[in-house]
Amino acid sequence: MLQLYFFPMACSLSSRIALMEAGIEAQYHLAHIWTKQVVDDGSDFRDLSPKGAVPVLVLENGERLTESAAVLQYIADLKPETGLAPRPGDFDRYRLQEWLSFIGAEIHKAFLFPAFWYKDDGSLAKPRARIAQTLSVPSAHLAEREFLVSNSFTVADAHLTWALLLLRPAGIDIAQWPPLSAYLARMQARPAVRGAIATEMALRKAVAA
Hints:
Blueprint: E1 2-6, H1 13-22, E2 26-32, E3 37-38, H2 45-48, E4 56-58, E5 64-66, H3 68-78, H4 92-117, H5 125-141, H6 155-167, H7 178-188, H8 191-208
Parallel strand pairs: 1-2
Antiparallel strand pairs: 1-4, 2-3, 4-5
Helix pairs in contact: 1-3, 1-6, 1-8, 4-5, 4-6, 6-7
């Protein structure tokens, strides 16, 4: 069985969403991203992944995958019939990679990472100024589209859903981009997405308690 090491409402949420959308059973291990400890057995998370970051997907043969783009692509390819990723040879497969890269680099690392890890002492001025321009890109793309790639839900949607959820606590109200606000509402209406978020929100409260 696959094993996913995650932290509640961190970027690993997109991997949980993908697993649930695909109907793939997995064991979930909470890895505290600040203490670097695996909660269920007290082990050092860095022994599993020197990066000390989630997600980490451990395959049945013991191989480990890190980085959301790789983990999401792998999960999607386990169940190609679900359409979570376009099949090899389909040009939209490159569009999927395009969006996974954009979300990871331009929203996650460029804004969400500093917003949650650094004190707002002026160092966040540039990321905050840039995020509006960044969000205008998926907003324009989704103005007349239901999903990021093709006409169905893919792992890119799982990843963007997570990113949009984190923008509000990071001080960005996506209501100023109506297409993004409508898109997030559509994604949250999906049973798997709703279930994954509910699970991790409950765990997040428990971790914070």
